[in-house]
Amino acid sequence: MRRIWVGSILAAGLIAACGAPAPTPDKRAAAPARTTAATSSLVTYPKFGDSDPHPWKGRAPGSYPIHGIDVARYQGDIDWRRARNAGVSFAYVKATEGGDFLDPMFRDHWRGARRAGVRRGAYHYYYFCRPAEEQARWFIRNVPRVADALPHVLDMEWNPHSPTCRLRPDGAKVRAEAERFLSILQAHYGRRPVLYTTVDFFRETDIGRLKNTEFWLRSVAGHPRQVYPGAFWTFWQYTGTGIVPGVNGPVDLNVFRASPEIWLRWADGG
Protein backbone atom coordinates (compact mmCIF):
# COMPACT_ATOMS: atom_id res chain seq x y z
CA MET A 1 0.00 0.00 0.00
CA ARG A 2 1.09 3.60 -0.49
CA ARG A 3 0.57 6.40 2.04
CA ILE A 4 0.07 9.92 0.76
CA TRP A 5 -0.12 13.11 2.77
CA VAL A 6 -2.70 15.63 1.61
CA GLY A 7 -3.28 18.82 3.59
CA SER A 8 -6.25 21.04 2.94
CA ILE A 9 -4.25 23.68 1.06
CA LEU A 10 -2.49 21.10 -1.11
CA ALA A 11 -5.78 19.38 -1.86
CA ALA A 12 -7.29 22.66 -3.00
CA GLY A 13 -4.33 23.25 -5.31
CA LEU A 14 -4.59 19.79 -6.83
CA ILE A 15 -8.31 20.19 -7.38
CA ALA A 16 -7.77 23.52 -9.08
CA ALA A 17 -5.12 21.92 -11.31
CA CYS A 18 -7.71 19.34 -12.40
CA GLY A 19 -9.89 22.09 -13.83
CA ALA A 20 -11.93 23.37 -10.89
CA PRO A 21 -11.90 27.17 -10.49
CA ALA A 22 -9.43 28.54 -7.98
CA PRO A 23 -11.12 29.74 -4.78
CA THR A 24 -11.79 33.45 -4.46
CA PRO A 25 -10.09 34.93 -1.37
CA ASP A 26 -12.65 35.32 1.39
CA LYS A 27 -13.08 34.59 5.07
CA ARG A 28 -13.13 30.85 4.46
CA ALA A 29 -9.86 30.97 2.53
CA ALA A 30 -8.24 32.90 5.37
CA ALA A 31 -9.26 30.34 7.99
CA PRO A 32 -6.65 27.86 9.30
CA ALA A 33 -6.39 24.63 7.30
CA ARG A 34 -8.04 21.57 8.85
CA THR A 35 -5.68 18.90 10.10
CA THR A 36 -8.04 16.05 10.97
CA ALA A 37 -6.80 12.52 10.36
CA ALA A 38 -9.31 12.10 7.56
CA THR A 39 -7.80 14.89 5.44
CA SER A 40 -4.17 14.95 6.51
CA SER A 41 -3.37 11.35 5.57
CA LEU A 42 -4.77 8.62 3.42
CA VAL A 43 -3.58 5.07 2.89
CA THR A 44 -4.10 4.34 -0.79
CA TYR A 45 -4.20 1.09 -2.78
CA PRO A 46 -4.57 -1.13 0.30
CA LYS A 47 -4.06 -4.88 -0.07
CA PHE A 48 -7.00 -6.43 1.73
CA GLY A 49 -7.60 -10.16 1.77
CA ASP A 50 -10.66 -12.01 0.53
CA SER A 51 -11.84 -15.42 1.70
CA ASP A 52 -13.59 -16.03 -1.64
CA PRO A 53 -11.71 -13.96 -4.22
CA HIS A 54 -12.93 -13.42 -7.76
CA PRO A 55 -10.48 -13.74 -10.69
CA TRP A 56 -10.99 -10.23 -12.07
CA LYS A 57 -10.73 -9.57 -15.79
CA GLY A 58 -10.17 -6.04 -16.97
CA ARG A 59 -9.93 -3.34 -14.33
CA ALA A 60 -9.74 -4.90 -10.87
CA PRO A 61 -10.75 -3.29 -7.56
CA GLY A 62 -7.11 -3.03 -6.53
CA SER A 63 -6.49 -0.43 -9.24
CA TYR A 64 -8.62 2.09 -7.32
CA PRO A 65 -6.83 4.07 -4.60
CA ILE A 66 -9.65 4.70 -2.10
CA HIS A 67 -11.25 1.73 -0.33
CA GLY A 68 -13.78 1.41 2.47
CA ILE A 69 -16.13 -0.96 4.26
CA ASP A 70 -19.79 -1.16 5.20
CA VAL A 71 -20.67 -2.71 8.53
CA ALA A 72 -23.57 -3.76 10.71
CA ARG A 73 -24.13 -5.67 13.94
CA TYR A 74 -22.70 -8.82 12.35
CA GLN A 75 -19.17 -7.37 12.53
CA GLY A 76 -19.37 -6.86 16.30
CA ASP A 77 -16.67 -4.72 17.90
CA ILE A 78 -14.22 -3.19 15.43
CA ASP A 79 -10.71 -1.90 16.04
CA TRP A 80 -11.27 1.20 13.94
CA ARG A 81 -7.79 2.63 14.31
CA ARG A 82 -6.25 -0.60 13.07
CA ALA A 83 -8.68 -0.69 10.16
CA ARG A 84 -7.88 2.89 9.23
CA ASN A 85 -4.14 2.26 9.35
CA ALA A 86 -4.66 -0.74 7.05
CA GLY A 87 -6.33 1.41 4.41
CA VAL A 88 -10.00 1.87 5.32
CA SER A 89 -10.69 5.43 4.15
CA PHE A 90 -14.45 5.36 4.71
CA ALA A 91 -17.15 3.32 6.40
CA TYR A 92 -20.87 3.10 5.89
CA VAL A 93 -22.59 2.02 9.09
CA LYS A 94 -25.98 0.37 9.17
CA ALA A 95 -28.40 2.50 11.16
CA THR A 96 -32.00 1.53 10.52
CA GLU A 97 -34.43 -0.81 8.78
CA GLY A 98 -38.03 -0.10 7.95
CA GLY A 99 -39.72 2.14 10.48
CA ASP A 100 -38.86 0.60 13.82
CA PHE A 101 -35.49 -1.18 13.80
CA LEU A 102 -32.20 0.37 14.93
CA ASP A 103 -29.05 -1.67 14.44
CA PRO A 104 -27.79 -2.41 17.99
CA MET A 105 -24.18 -1.66 16.98
CA PHE A 106 -24.90 1.58 15.17
CA ARG A 107 -23.89 4.00 17.88
CA ASP A 108 -20.70 2.08 18.77
CA HIS A 109 -19.63 1.87 15.13
CA TRP A 110 -20.60 5.48 14.42
CA ARG A 111 -18.57 6.84 17.33
CA GLY A 112 -15.68 4.42 16.90
CA ALA A 113 -15.14 5.34 13.25
CA ARG A 114 -15.22 9.05 14.10
CA ARG A 115 -12.68 8.68 16.92
CA ALA A 116 -10.30 6.82 14.60
CA GLY A 117 -10.55 9.43 11.85
CA VAL A 118 -12.49 7.25 9.41
CA ARG A 119 -14.98 9.22 7.32
CA ARG A 120 -18.39 7.68 7.87
CA GLY A 121 -21.99 7.79 6.78
CA ALA A 122 -25.05 5.80 7.79
CA TYR A 123 -27.36 3.64 5.73
CA HIS A 124 -31.00 2.63 5.86
CA TYR A 125 -32.34 -0.72 4.66
CA TYR A 126 -35.67 -0.12 2.92
CA TYR A 127 -38.84 -2.13 3.58
CA PHE A 128 -41.58 -1.92 0.98
CA CYS A 129 -44.24 -2.55 3.61
CA ARG A 130 -43.95 0.93 5.16
CA PRO A 131 -44.37 4.40 3.68
CA ALA A 132 -41.22 6.17 2.54
CA GLU A 133 -41.87 9.18 4.79
CA GLU A 134 -42.23 6.98 7.88
CA GLN A 135 -38.92 5.28 7.16
CA ALA A 136 -37.15 8.56 6.46
CA ARG A 137 -38.35 10.03 9.76
CA TRP A 138 -37.19 6.93 11.62
CA PHE A 139 -33.72 7.31 10.11
CA ILE A 140 -33.61 11.01 10.99
CA ARG A 141 -34.66 10.23 14.55
CA ASN A 142 -31.67 7.93 15.01
CA VAL A 143 -28.86 9.39 12.89
CA PRO A 144 -27.41 12.69 14.10
CA ARG A 145 -26.88 15.62 11.77
CA VAL A 146 -23.12 16.28 11.94
CA ALA A 147 -20.95 18.37 9.65
CA ASP A 148 -18.31 15.71 8.96
CA ALA A 149 -20.65 12.89 7.88
CA LEU A 150 -20.63 11.55 4.36
CA PRO A 151 -23.89 11.62 2.38
CA HIS A 152 -26.06 8.93 3.89
CA VAL A 153 -27.29 5.92 1.92
CA LEU A 154 -30.60 4.38 0.98
CA ASP A 155 -30.19 0.61 0.53
CA MET A 156 -32.86 -0.68 -1.87
CA GLU A 157 -32.87 -4.34 -2.89
CA TRP A 158 -35.26 -7.28 -2.99
CA ASN A 159 -35.43 -9.35 0.18
CA PRO A 160 -37.10 -12.68 -0.68
CA HIS A 161 -36.15 -14.20 2.68
CA SER A 162 -37.68 -11.53 4.91
CA PRO A 163 -40.09 -12.98 7.50
CA THR A 164 -42.19 -9.81 7.45
CA CYS A 165 -41.98 -8.06 4.07
CA ARG A 166 -41.53 -9.64 0.66
CA LEU A 167 -43.42 -7.14 -1.47
CA ARG A 168 -42.01 -6.37 -4.92
CA PRO A 169 -43.63 -3.15 -6.17
CA ASP A 170 -43.35 -2.19 -9.82
CA GLY A 171 -40.60 0.11 -11.00
CA ALA A 172 -42.68 3.26 -11.02
CA LYS A 173 -43.69 2.81 -7.38
CA VAL A 174 -40.13 1.91 -6.35
CA ARG A 175 -38.74 5.02 -7.98
CA ALA A 176 -41.42 7.23 -6.43
CA GLU A 177 -40.75 5.88 -2.96
CA ALA A 178 -36.99 6.24 -3.40
CA GLU A 179 -37.38 9.84 -4.53
CA ARG A 180 -39.55 10.64 -1.52
CA PHE A 181 -37.05 9.12 0.92
CA LEU A 182 -34.04 10.80 -0.70
CA SER A 183 -35.74 14.20 -0.78
CA ILE A 184 -36.66 14.10 2.91
CA LEU A 185 -33.12 13.21 3.94
CA GLN A 186 -31.64 15.80 1.62
CA ALA A 187 -33.79 18.50 3.20
CA HIS A 188 -32.71 17.45 6.70
CA TYR A 189 -29.01 16.70 6.26
CA GLY A 190 -28.18 19.11 3.47
CA ARG A 191 -26.83 16.52 1.00
CA ARG A 192 -28.70 14.11 -1.22
CA PRO A 193 -28.12 10.50 -0.14
CA VAL A 194 -26.42 7.89 -2.30
CA LEU A 195 -28.55 4.94 -3.44
CA TYR A 196 -27.15 1.41 -2.98
CA THR A 197 -28.58 -1.42 -5.03
CA THR A 198 -27.98 -4.82 -6.62
CA VAL A 199 -27.89 -6.12 -10.16
CA ASP A 200 -31.37 -7.66 -10.28
CA PHE A 201 -33.04 -4.75 -8.50
CA PHE A 202 -31.36 -2.21 -10.79
CA ARG A 203 -32.49 -4.12 -13.87
CA GLU A 204 -36.05 -4.91 -12.75
CA THR A 205 -37.01 -1.50 -11.34
CA ASP A 206 -35.09 0.81 -13.67
CA ILE A 207 -33.95 2.65 -10.55
CA GLY A 208 -31.11 4.15 -12.56
CA ARG A 209 -33.65 6.57 -14.07
CA LEU A 210 -33.66 8.62 -10.85
CA LYS A 211 -32.33 12.08 -11.55
CA ASN A 212 -29.60 13.83 -9.57
CA THR A 213 -28.74 10.60 -7.76
CA GLU A 214 -25.38 8.95 -7.13
CA PHE A 215 -25.25 5.17 -7.08
CA TRP A 216 -23.39 2.58 -5.05
CA LEU A 217 -23.48 -0.63 -7.07
CA ARG A 218 -22.90 -4.19 -5.91
CA SER A 219 -20.99 -6.31 -8.42
CA VAL A 220 -18.91 -9.17 -7.04
CA ALA A 221 -18.21 -11.00 -10.31
CA GLY A 222 -17.47 -8.27 -12.83
CA HIS A 223 -16.66 -4.59 -13.18
CA PRO A 224 -19.74 -2.33 -13.02
CA ARG A 225 -19.21 -1.21 -16.60
CA GLN A 226 -19.83 -4.82 -17.65
CA VAL A 227 -22.61 -5.64 -15.19
CA TYR A 228 -24.42 -2.27 -15.28
CA PRO A 229 -23.85 -1.07 -18.86
CA GLY A 230 -23.97 2.69 -19.13
CA ALA A 231 -24.48 3.28 -15.41
CA PHE A 232 -22.45 5.92 -13.59
CA TRP A 233 -21.37 4.94 -10.10
CA THR A 234 -19.74 6.61 -7.11
CA PHE A 235 -19.06 3.47 -5.04
CA TRP A 236 -18.54 -0.11 -6.15
CA GLN A 237 -19.06 -2.96 -3.66
CA TYR A 238 -16.79 -5.65 -5.05
CA THR A 239 -16.96 -8.40 -2.41
CA GLY A 240 -18.86 -9.49 0.67
CA THR A 241 -16.05 -11.72 1.94
CA GLY A 242 -13.30 -9.22 2.55
CA ILE A 243 -10.63 -9.59 5.23
CA VAL A 244 -9.62 -6.35 6.95
CA PRO A 245 -7.31 -5.91 9.96
CA GLY A 246 -9.38 -4.85 12.97
CA VAL A 247 -12.61 -6.44 11.70
CA ASN A 248 -13.67 -9.87 12.93
CA GLY A 249 -14.93 -12.12 10.16
CA PRO A 250 -15.92 -11.27 6.58
CA VAL A 251 -16.84 -7.71 5.63
CA ASP A 252 -18.06 -5.91 2.51
CA LEU A 253 -15.33 -4.06 0.61
CA ASN A 254 -15.92 -1.05 -1.61
CA VAL A 255 -14.01 1.41 -3.75
CA PHE A 256 -14.59 5.07 -4.53
CA ARG A 257 -14.68 5.88 -8.24
CA ALA A 258 -11.78 8.32 -8.55
CA SER A 259 -8.54 9.80 -7.23
CA PRO A 260 -7.63 10.71 -3.64
CA GLU A 261 -7.96 14.40 -4.46
CA ILE A 262 -11.45 13.95 -5.85
CA TRP A 263 -12.33 11.77 -2.84
CA LEU A 264 -11.36 14.54 -0.41
CA ARG A 265 -13.37 17.05 -2.39
CA TRP A 266 -16.41 14.76 -2.63
CA ALA A 267 -16.30 13.78 1.06
CA ASP A 268 -16.31 17.43 2.05
CA GLY A 269 -19.28 18.22 -0.18
CA GLY A 270 -17.41 19.64 -3.17
Quick summary of this structure?
The chain contains ten helices and twelve strands. By secondary structure, it is an alpha/beta fold. It has one domain: TIM Barrel.
Structure overview:
This protein has helices spanning 8-17, 27-30, 37-40, 80-86, 106-116, 132-142, 171-189, 199-205, 224-227, 260-267; strands at residues 2-5, 41-44, 49-50, 67-71, 88-97, 101-102, 119-125, 153-155, 194-197, 215-218, 235-243, 251-256. It is α/β, with parallel strands linked by helices. It has one domain (49-267): Glycosidases (TIM Barrel, Alpha-Beta Barrel), CATH 3.20.20.80. The strands form 2 sheets. Strands 4-5-7-8-9-10-11-12 form an 8-stranded mixed beta barrel, surrounded by 5 helices. The protein has a two-stranded antiparallel sheet with strand order 1-2. It is globular and about 40 Å long. The relative contact order is 0.18. Residues 2-39 have low confidence and may be disordered.
Secondary structure layout plus pairing:
Blueprint: E1 2-5, H1 8-17, H2 27-30, H3 37-40, E2 41-44, E3 49-50, E4 67-71, H4 80-86, E5 88-97, E6 101-102, H5 106-116, E7 119-125, H6 132-142, E8 153-155, H7 171-189, E9 194-197, H8 199-205, E10 215-218, H9 224-227, E11 235-243, E12 251-256, H10 260-267
Parallel strand pairs: 4-5, 5-7, 7-8, 8-9, 9-10, 10-11
Antiparallel strand pairs: 1-2, 3-11, 4-12, 5-6, 11-12
Terminal Cα separation, in Å? 26 Å
Question: Strand order, biggest sheet?
Answer: 4-5-7-8-9-10-11-12
- Percent helix: 25-40%
Please identify which CATH superfamily we are dealing with: Glycosidases
Q: Which fold name fills CATH's third level, the topology?
A: TIM Barrel
Q: Which CATH-level-2 architecture?
A: Alpha-Beta Barrel
* Regions with little confidence, pLDDT below 50 for 5+ residues: 2-39
Percent range for β-strand residues: 15-25%
Tally of extended strands? Answer: 12
Radius of gyration: 18 Å
